[in-house]
Automatic annotation (TrEMBL):
It comes from Cohaesibacter marisflavi. Residues 62-249 form the Transposase IS801/IS1294 domain. It comes from the Bacteria. It holds the Pfam family Y2_Tnp. GO terms for biological process: DNA transposition. This is Transposase zinc-binding domain-containing protein. GO terms for molecular function: DNA binding; transposase activity.
Amino acid sequence: MAARAEDLLPVEYFHLVFTLPAEIAQLAYWNKRTLYGLLFRASAQTVMTIAADPKRMGARVGMTAVLHTWGSALTHHPHIHMIVPGGGLSADGTKWVSCKPGFFLHVRVLSRLFRRLFLEGLLDLQKTGKLALFGDLASLSEPEAFAAWLHPFRRTEWVVYAKPPFGGPEAVLAYLSRYTHRVAISNNRLISADASIVTFRWKDYRIKSGDRQKIMQLVTPEFIRRFLLHVLPAGFHRIRHYGFLASANRKANIAKIRTMLGVEHQLEDHKEELAVEVSPLTLREPCPCCGGPMRIIEIFRRGQKPLSRAPPREQAA
């Protein structure tokens, strides 16, 4: 949160969501790294291309994209959440270009370009042998058969939508802190679990009005199967930055934009407003010996030796 607070600008922020059709998302069962990477590239290129159009905004925008692969019931539902400042740098990089208040870009225009870019990328992956096909889709290994299977998707509407703008930089920071690092299900949704049944709360988004909260029970092997659908390939980055927020030049671009907006002198005050109180990391489970909270002494990767020796047993507890 402290790092992201330094990147925030005093402008309106928008929240976009890019979703894959369920039939195409099925390909990711066997091609997670490839398909999720294409989803990142196609969605980011869509926003940057439309925003750079002089007829739209004519600006080089920046964005933070976050991959989620689950629905509320732990079903496979790959989609990208994208947080975008409401404006960008002009083509020559000399001024800040703001979008219209409360409006970023037309979602239908974004949807159609996203659809075209993703399908073109999918065809290229298949032609170059980078797409694995099994089960019911094994017959699509031939380029002609695969192209014919994709053809109907060129005429369907792909789901791209924009949520209402965030209520200022503070709301963006709160969103990033609690939402971007989620896993498929959090502990507070779990009601009970044993060797036979897992019971949890889920939200039925098909219900347009009224109470969406429901209770689901799954046999434990099915719950484990659904949860494991959302384990990403080793080393895969599920949070990525593009445009003027790309990591290589982010700090320089942010400083430059603040100067353009005439707010660089407010930076220190802004940091104080968004200051985060950092508390020591703890484990959720109490100590099995004394019942007290357990502290994390050190974190190290698999195969890596810890730097410090373990404390005495009574202190570790």
